[in-house]
Design a protein that fits this description.
This protein has 494 residues and is an alpha/beta fold. It has 2 domains: 337 residues, Alpha-Beta Barrel (TIM Barrel), CATH 3.20.20; 30 residues, no CATH class. The protein is built from 20 helices and 21 strands. The strands form 7 sheets. It has a 5-stranded parallel sheet with strand order 11-12-13-15-16. A 4-stranded mixed sheet has the order 4-5-3-14. A 3-stranded parallel sheet has the order 8-20-19. Helix 4 crosses helix 10 and helix 10 crosses helix 11. The longest helix has 22 residues.
Length: 494
Amino acid sequence: MAFRESEEGTAVAEFAERFRIRKAFDLLSDEERRTIHEGALEVLETTGVRFHSAAARDDLRSAGAVVDDKTHDVRFPRDIVEEFLRMAPRSITLAGRATEFDLPMDGSHSYYTTDGCGIAVWDASTGTRRASLLEDIRKTAILGDWLPYVSIYEPMVVAHDVPESVHVAAGMMVAMENTQKHLLSESTTKPQEARVQVAMAAEVLGSLDELRKRHYVSAMLCTVSPLIVDGNAADAALVWAENHVPVHITSMAQAGVTGPASLAGDLVVSHAETLAVACMLEAHEPGTPAIYGSVLSGMDPRTGSYMGGSPESTLLAAGSIEMAKYCRLPISVGGFGSSAKIPGIQASLENALIAMVCATFGGEVVNGLGVPDGSTLLSYEQLLLDHEIAGMVLKICRGFEVNSDTIALDLIKKVGIGGNYLAQPHTLRNIRDNFVSMVWDSDPFDVWVQKGAKDPMAMAREKVEWILQHHPPVPLDPDVSRSLERIVKESAKA
């Protein structure tokens, strides 16, 4: 992977540069963001958040929070929240197994992840679902390793063919073996699983000290809206914090169900939960990389059903990005995850709209490629379609340069009236930057018919097969692979 010198004189990998975007826009005014923030602080001080982790409550009590051990509710004086926010790093780098895949979170990039927690796989040949397997994690890790606009790989399904006790560890092991990109763990539900993954990541990097310096894995903690943090999830997050593994604090407040129906009110609940967890992490381990995350959603007003790709969900994603910017924390947001029941038109339309909004307003890690139906159904075809969406969004959000070469005045004068630019060297140089789709066919209709009249879903299936046949991932050292297998086997006995 080639490197170039940035304006600041530091080495920047071309891979990370692929995701650089222009300055983000703002959805909310400073006053609107301040109003939501002040509302969340009032909720934290008067109502509080319920922590079912005794260790988290002890840390917060020592830091000056007001703890009720009968209800497990914790209330936060304003000054404590502000103090802990100052402790959290303003920017971090999500590291790959190889340094060329390192991803600086500095406010100038928009990265894309696969999604986790799928429990079934779409079989396009039969139009039905099947149980997800460990092999699906291997295949999607290889696809994620190859696809140029997948920045981060997250094990995409629950492997029903391995014991439940090693679901998470086995999935992470297969991911480590089949991609060099940064890994995000979403499915950790208890501290033992976090410890196992820490041991595995340290084995890959060489030591726990190296893991603390290079954030090879990050992890997700989902709150239980409204205003609850699960005990096992919190204890797992404390393990991550002790090892400086970045934690994506992910509220899932659903407007009208687990948060107020008004979008601003839903953001107050989400913001309060996020601030509370950030305090929990910093109270346990000052300087823990805390990422402001969210997967907020609207509801169908007729049924109360989850609406992952609705206009309301899209606005909530943008609103959570605004609040992360207000707190000056790295930003993670659920930018895909359509509620479409099957892959295809609805999923692609909803994902395209929300992905564009997330990049436009400054979402740094945009989560969710390839898993429609509320992030429960893996579709290999949708993974390719979502990848195309990510590539097009990045192309748009990078903008274009205006300089003496790009305005091409001499060339315009040379070609003159009624001329043609096809054979000009300037065209050959600049056309290389054009986005070229992997799955859309740009040939005329008659040519497309002669080639088999394949729709994008068929093209996506063919591309999946081509990648799996032609892309051998860079393997781990055999000794490291054996160590990972030993760690997973030992975790099954614990």
